[in-house]
Design a protein that fits this description.
Order of helices and strands: HHEEEEEHHHEEHEH
Largest sheet: 6 strands, antiparallel
Structural class: alpha+beta
Helix content: 25-40%
Strand order of the largest sheet: 1-7-2-4-5-6
Number of strands: 8
Radius of gyration: 17 Å
Number of domains: 1
Distance between the termini: 35 Å
Length: 228
């Protein structure tokens, strides 16, 4: 168990379980966003920086006519852009069941701990804007890693000019944001999203077995969920 899971367990203990911890974390986000003296959640208009978590509104995708559903309030772990185009890529954590969301953040925090620790010291401590990106968080590598567990389902891309009220979250606040439930799905229920997640997982495993993909071939931009 890494830092993220330990902190989440402590939040559960201090607040009487999951429901209490979620309420406290949601209130923390809203209060921090509106408070001038709080830096752990701040509005930003910058493009995604790899490794940072962003919360924003995305109400009108340009491809919405071909999309059966989309999330109007994504919480996204940013990745680099493999195509070097005008869109932002990331993992929409809202689309993953809570235990998977917490697991991926726990593992990434552990793997990138030395770089994160360098970002939470001095004048960068709890300052979401000043903290530097995790440049090692490459799309291809992360997708290959996620698809081992069927989590590539949550990779999405976004047009920067369509994002509204975008806020960035400090590394120290990952445990709290992992508990928050901000999903606002248009065109489907959370139950339907969970079913699609399971189906993606099954199909991805079958595809990998049938194709005999080499390790270096995995993670290429073959994700059909990259609507914008």
């Amino acid at each position: 168990m890494g830092y993220i899971k330990e902190q989440i367990r402590q939040l559960f203990k201090e607040n009487g379980g999951y429901a209490g911890a979620k309420r406290v974390s949601t209130n923390w986000f809203k209060e921090s966003l509106d408070a001038r003296d709080k830096l752990d959640v701040k509005y930003t208009r910058k493009r995604f920086e790899p490794g940072k978590i962003y919360v924003f509104k995305y109400e009108n995708p340009v491809t919405q006519e071909t999309m059966p559903w989309w999330d109007k309030a994504p919480v996204v772990l940013a990745l680099d852009n493999p195509e070097r185009d005008h869109t932002d890529y990331g993992v929409n954590l809202n689309l993953l069941p809570a235990r998977f969301r917490q697991e991926i953040l726990d593992q990434l925090y552990t793997r990138l701990n030395s770089k994160i620790q360098a970002n939470i010291k001095g004048n960068k401590a709890s300052d979401a804007v000043k903290q530097r990106p995790l440049v090692d968080l490459k799309y291809a590598a992360v997708k290959a890693y996620l698809d081992r567990f069927g989590l590539g389902f949550a990779i999405r891309r976004y047009l920067p000019n369509l994002k509204k009220n975008q806020a960035v979250v400090s590394y120290e606040s990952w445990p709290k944001i992992a508990i928050c439930e901000f999903a606002k799905i248009h065109g489907a229920s959370i139950g339907q999203i969970r079913k699609e997640f399971i189906q993606y997982n099954v199909e991805n495993r079958n595809k990998t077995k049938a194709s005999g993909l080499k390790k270096d071939d995995k993670g290429k931009n073959d994700n059909n969920n990259l609507n914008i």
